[in-house]
From TrEMBL:
<keyword id="KW-0311">Gluconate utilization</keyword>
<dbReference type="InterPro" id="IPR006184">
    <property type="entry name" value="6PGdom_BS"/>
</dbReference>
<keyword id="KW-0521">NADP</keyword>
<comment type="function">
    <text>Catalyzes the oxidative decarboxylation of 6-phosphogluconate to ribulose 5-phosphate and CO(2), with concomitant reduction of NADP to NADPH.</text>
</comment>
<comment type="subunit">
    <text>Homodimer.</text>
</comment>
<dbReference type="InterPro" id="IPR008927">
    <property type="entry name" value="6-PGluconate_DH-like_C_sf"/>
</dbReference>
<keyword id="KW-0560">Oxidoreductase</keyword>
<dbReference type="InterPro" id="IPR013328">
    <property type="entry name" value="6PGD_dom2"/>
</dbReference>
<comment type="pathway">
    <text>Carbohydrate degradation; pentose phosphate pathway; D-ribulose 5-phosphate from D-glucose 6-phosphate (oxidative stage): step 3/3.</text>
</comment>
<dbReference type="GO" id="GO:0004616">
    <property type="term" value="F:phosphogluconate dehydrogenase (decarboxylating) activity"/>
</dbReference>
<protein>
    <recommendedName>
        <fullName>6-phosphogluconate dehydrogenase, decarboxylating</fullName>
        <ecNumber>1.1.1.44</ecNumber>
    </recommendedName>
</protein>
<dbReference type="Pfam" id="PF00393">
    <property type="entry name" value="6PGD"/>
</dbReference>
<feature type="domain" description="6-phosphogluconate dehydrogenase C-terminal">
    <location>
        <begin position="166"/>
        <end position="464"/>
    </location>
</feature>
<dbReference type="InterPro" id="IPR006114">
    <property type="entry name" value="6PGDH_C"/>
</dbReference>
<dbReference type="InterPro" id="IPR006183">
    <property type="entry name" value="Pgluconate_DH"/>
</dbReference>
<dbReference type="InterPro" id="IPR006115">
    <property type="entry name" value="6PGDH_NADP-bd"/>
</dbReference>
<comment type="similarity">
    <text>Belongs to the 6-phosphogluconate dehydrogenase family.</text>
</comment>
Length: 472
C-alpha cells in the first residue's frame, strides 16, 4: 500500500523520496514505476532524511504496533524541529496520541492519518482521514486533497481533529466495515438457504440492489464475488470453496473495546466481531455439528425454504432488512464518533466524515450523501435514526425486517447482525425499557439504589427490614 501511495503522490507532481527497509523493494519500485514521477530512492534512513528539504514531510506506511514504533524510533533522531511525520497505517488511536505527545516534545509534528481504499485506492485515490495539529495540516492538507479521490468536486479528505482523531475515525470506519460485511453475508446466507439459489443465481440480486438505496462498493463487489468461479474448477462457485472462517487484523475489535470504554452501544459492530470469532471457533463448531439440533422443520418446505410464490417478496424483505440494519450500524458508528470526540475534545464534525467517506473508502455508499445532509440539517442530531429521512426509510422497511428476523429464527439460519440491529431499534424507540428491573435487582441484592420516575434523587428499599424506602 505504501508503494501505491508513493506512486499516487509522485503522479501528482510531488518530488517523492522513497525508502524501504528491504532495498530491493525500492529498486523494484523505481524500475517498474520510476517513469511515473520524480522519485528519489534512498538506501538508508539517513540518506532518505537528507534527501528532503526542511521542514520535511515524511509518510510512514508500515504494520501497526511495534513496527511503527521501530520506524519512528529510527527516524526521530534524524529529524529536526518543525518536521512533519505522518503515520498512514491503521494505528490504534491511543498509540497515535502517545506518539504525538512524545514527538511534540521534540518539536516534531506527528500526524496520524487514516487511509482507506486498499491497494487500488491508495494508487487511484483513497479516502483520507487526517489527524494532527492545525500546523501539520496546513502543509499536509493540500497534498492529501490532491491524492484523495473527489466526489462532486469535493476531495475525500478533511482535517478530522488533533492527535489521534484521524486514526479514531479510521478505526470506526473499519468497525462499520465489519458490520456492513456481516450484514451482507447474512443477507446472502438467508437468500441462499431460504431460497435454495446458487451464488451465481444470487449475483444478479446484489447487482440490482446496487442500483438502489443500497448502492455501495461492498454490494458491488459481493455481486462480483458471487459470480466468480473457482479458478480450479469452472462452474463451481469460488465462495463455495472458500473456508468459512473469517480472519481479522484488529481494527473491528479495537472499535468494540473502545466503545465499551466510552459506553457507546455499537452492537452491530460487536456482533460482527463476535460472528467472525464464532466462525473461527473450529473446535467448538465441529463438536456441535450433529449434536445440537436445529428447528424440527429445518430444511423442509414449512420454514426451511420459502415457497416459490413468495420468493420475490422474500428477496425484497431481505433487501429492506439489510438496509434498515445498515442504517443502525452507521447510526451506532456515528454515535461513537461523537462520543470519542467529546471524550478527547476533538471537535469532530460528523457530517464532514460522511462527506469524506462518499468515495475512495471501503464503506463508500450512496446513502452517505443522505448522512451528510442529515448532519447538515441538524448538526446536533441525537441519532441518525431520528433524522426524518432515515426514520421514514427504516419505518417503511420495519415489517419486512421483522419478517426476515422471524424467518431466520424459525429456519435456524443465524442472522445476529439483522436481529441485534432490530433489537437496538426497538430498544431505542420504546418509551420504557426493561432496565427498571435491573435497577430494582441491583438495589435488592446490593443496595445500589435506584432513581424514580416521579421524584428527583436516589432511593433504597430496606429489603431485609420493614420494606420502607429511604433517600440516599
Ligand atoms: C480500508 C480497509 C483496510 C483493511 C482492513 C481489513 O479501509 O482500506 O479497512 O484498512 O482492508 O483493515 O481489516 P481486517 O483484516 O481486520 O478485516
Amino acid at each position: 500500500m505504501g508503494r501505491n501511495l508513493a506512486r499516487n503522490i509522485a503522479r501528482h507532481g510531488y518530488v517523492t523520496a522513497v525508502h524501504n527497509r528491504t532495498d530491493a523493494k525500492t529498486t523494484a519500485l523505481i524500475e517498474e514505476f520510476g517513469h511515473e514521477g520524480d522519485f528519489v530512492p534512498a538506501v538508508t534512513p539517513q540518506e532518505f532524511v537528507d534527501s528532503l528539504t526542511s521542514p520535511r514531510t515524511i509518510i510512514i506506511m508500515v504494520k501497526a504496533g511495534g513496527p511503527t514504533d521501530a520506524v519512528i524510533d529510527e527516524l526521530a533522531p534524524l529529524l529536526s524541529e518543525g518536521d512533519i511525520l505522518v503515520d498512514g497505517g491503521n494505528a490504534h488511536f491511543a498509540d497515535t496520541r502517545r506518539r504525538e505527545a512524545a514527538l511534540r516534545e521534540k518539536g516534531i509534528h506527528f500526524a496520524g492519518v487514516g487511509v482507506s481504499g486498499g491497494e487500488e485506492g491508495a494508487l487511484l485515490g483513497p479516502s483520507i482521514m487526517p489527524g494532527g495539529s492545525e500546523h501539520a495540516y496546513a502543509k499536509l492538507g493540500p497534498i492529501l486533497a490532491d491524492i484523495a479521490v473527489s466526489v462532486d468536486g469535493t476531495p475525500c479528505s478533511t482535517h478530522v481533529g488533533p492527535d489521534g482523531a484521524g486514526h479514531f475515525v479510521k478505526m470506526v470506519h473499519n468497525g462499520i466495515e465489519y458490520a456492513d460485511m456481516q450484514l451482507i453475508a447474512e443477507a446472502y446466507d438467508l437468500l441462499r438457504h431460504g431460497l435454495g439459489r446458487s451464488p451465481q443465481e444470487l449475483a444478479p440480486v446484489f447487482e440490482s440492489w446496487n442500483s438502489g438505496d443500497l448502492e455501495s462498493f461492498l454490494i458491488e463487489i459481493t455481486a462480483r464475488l458471487l459470480k466468480t468461479d473457482d479458478p480450479r474448477q469452472a462452474g463451481r462457485a469460488l465462495v463455495d470453496v472458500i473456508l468459512d472462517e473469517a480472519e481479522q487484523k484488529g481494527t473491528g475489535r479495537w472499535t468494540v473495546q473502545t466503545a465499551l470504554d466510552l459506553g457507546t452501544p455499537v452492537s452491530g459492530i460487536a456482533e460482527a466481531v463476535f460472528a467472525r470469532a464464532l466462525s473461527g471457533s473450529g473446535v467448538q463448531r465441529r463438536a456441535a455439528q450433529g449434536v445440537l439440533p436445529g428447528p424440527s422443520t429445518e430444511g423442509t418446505d414449512e420454514t426451511g425454504f420459502i415457497a416459490a410464490a413468495d420468493a420475490e417478496q422474500f428477496v425484497d424483505d431481505v433487501r429492506a432488512a439489510l438496509y434498515a440494519s445498515k442504517v443502525v450500524a452507521y447510526a451506532q458508528g456515528f454515535d461513537m464518533i461523537r462520543a470519542g470526540s467529546t471524550e478527547y475534545g476533538w471537535g469532530i464534525d460528523p457530517g464532514a466524515m460522511a462527506t469524506i467517506w462518499r468515495g475512495g473508502c471501503i464503506i463508500r455508499a450512496r446513502f452517505l450523501d443522505r448522512i451528510r445532509e442529515a448532519y447538515e440539517n441538524q448538526p446536533d442530531l441525537p441519532s441518525l435514526l431520528v433524522d426524518p429521512y432515515f426514520a421514514d426509510a427504516v419505518a417503511r422497511g420495519q415489517e419486512a425486517w421483522r419478517r426476515v428476523v422471524v424467518h431466520s429464527v424459525q429456519a435456524g439460519i443465524p442472522a445476529p447482525g439483522f436481529s441485534s440491529a432490530l433489537a437496538y431499534y426497538d430498544g431505542l424507540r420504546r418509551e420504557r425499557s426493561s432496565a427498571s428491573v435491573i435497577q430494582g435487582l441491583r438495589d435488592l441484592f446490593g443496595a445500589h439504589t435506584y432513581k424514580r420516575t416521579d421524584t428527583e434523587g436516589s432511593f433504597h428499599v430496606e429489603w431485609s427490614g420493614d420494606g420502607s424506602e429511604s433517600a440516599s
